[in-house]
Design a protein that fits this description.
Elements lengths: L2 H5 L13 H9 L9 E3 L8 H9 L6 H12 E5 L2 H15 L8 E3 L8 E7 L2 E5 L2 E6 L12 H8 L1 E2 L2 E2 L4 H10 L2 E12 L1 H4 L4 H10 L1 E7 L10 E7 L6 E4 L2 E4 H6 L24 E4 L7 H4 E3 L4 E14 L2 H7 L7 H12 L3 E17 L5 E5 L12 E4 L1 H12 L18 E4 L8 E4 L3 E3 L5 E4 L6 H10 L2 H11 L7 H6 L8 H19 L9 H8 L6
Parallel strand pairs: 1-2, 1-6, 2-3, 6-9, 10-12, 18-22
Antiparallel strand pairs: 4-5, 7-8, 9-11, 10-11, 12-13, 14-23, 15-19, 16-17, 18-19, 20-21, 20-23
The structure holds S-adenosylmethionine.
Length: 548
Amino acid sequence: MTTAKRDRPSKRQLGQFITPESVAGQMLADIELTADTRILEPSLGDGAFILPLVRRLVALHTGSPAERLSKVLADNLHGVELDHKLHARCLQRVAAEFGNLPEKHNLVHADFFHHEFEASWRWGPDGLDDRLTFDLVVGNPPFGGTFDASIEDELDRDYGERFGHKIKKETYAFFIVKCVERLNRDGRLLFICSDSLLTIPTMKGLRVFLMNEGQVRVRRLPEFSDETTYPMVVLDFRRNGRSEAVIRDGERISRATVEMSENKSWGMSEDLRPAFAGPTIGNFMVGTSGMTIGKNKYFVRKIVNGSILEPYRFEFHEEPITLEGELARARLGKLSLRKQEQIRQQERLGETRRCVRVLPREKPLTIRLPHADYKQYNKSNGKIVHSEPDHVVYWRNAGEAVLTFKKSGNWYLRGVGGQPFFEREGLTWQLIASRLKTRYLPAGCILDSGAPCGFLLPGVPHDELLLVLAWTLSPLCSRILKSVINHTMNIQSKDFERLPYPYWVNPEAKEEAIRRMRDLIDHARNGEPFSFDSPEIITLGKAFDFHT
Ligand SMILES: C[S@@+](CC[C@H](N)C(=O)[O-])C[C@H]1O[C@@H](n2cnc3c(N)ncnc32)[C@H](O)[C@@H]1O
């Protein structure tokens, strides 16, 4: 690949998902425009919003077609686009439909974070200010894009915190902050953005910022475009000062309700308030991810009829430490100068690192389990209540081969997720799932990253493990997880800890739920399968309804 090509930002780096005409049309349908409305499209692409806006604005002016277009592009519409091809295409499209562009217009090719439209000096909230402000901001800011590395730190200083909360360094979050702060009082912002805005903990600061700056209405878009399957929302915001509620998909959620959830989630609902008035699971249990081996094929074996087939043997050896080798394993192939110097020194001294060699056997060895060199491996599966571990991991000498493989591998393999919890009793669930699929985790397992786990905090009675397991299998718990805590497919250990603890269940019902859960695990251990449709699971779930 040529350097020029490598340096050119890709479609993905620019967060380019062009808005279909129909979606832009719907969003603009109810906005009111006058000949004086000043509008900003901060990432205009090839003009999905610009063209319909020009169509409406030219009709509000008088004069020849050229004069009208000139007024629209000088006084009404302001736009920025970083990709010169898209910017040029937008200008061409405007010219093709409305005639030659006037010499002076405000559709600029620039980085929005480098660019400021200027106004005459005036006294603003932070002192003298000459930045132009707008009545309306519309668009679809880049999502998951990258920032200009030369100003990343500066941007973090400028936009990284509001109202004492962190604003995640994500393109759409910083676009929103900058645009809201360029809105006039009562100005409106209409943006398509990722639905991660609704619940995910890292967007908490942005949600707080928006609620403190004005009135939020947000609605999920049933369909966006073929370019991405990622769910999108329309954020419809009015800058009229701190608001007392958020309107999500037409439902009013009071600020007090939103604030009951730790992540200030817009997925909250009034009927869920009781769940958030007490402790969280994190007060009783700790969640953890498991480890990523990097090459399961080398070390993890499927159990078939109580035996495994071992196709490899493992040998340890020393390898010289070299700067070249370390750079190849480092993140983005980069190491600090200090680190490089340290490695050069190690290289000069002839230092070595312990490595493992994985050698195929001529004929796979059949090994009957249990075996001292293998431990049960908690791989993810979609089962609930309990499932006998169906994999083992080669764990001779406390996992020496796996841990050496990770330590001498790429940078992202170095940490060992969940290591302090290896072999402890707890519960576990499938990381990527549409609902919480929890099951009992017997003692003795090594933990895989596909199945995060929860363990009782010191001093918490053992029965609480069974209660939490029963609670996490209930429909109410899954609803809270997926609508309030984090609606994405990923169920991280922190999400588990943030779940409410079912303090509202009375002592008799609690005891009964624990007894039933113990029973279910025993049955599952004897081979009885359970699903969310099993009558026993449905009955168990009812114990956690607020009215019971
Ligand atoms: C999601 S697309 C939307 C484009 C257009 N607004 C639409 O709705 O079709 C985001 C656009 O932002 C542009 N972009 C990315 N980073 C930018 C930046 N720092 N300044 C200005 N534009 C940027 C991308 O090139 C892309 O065209």
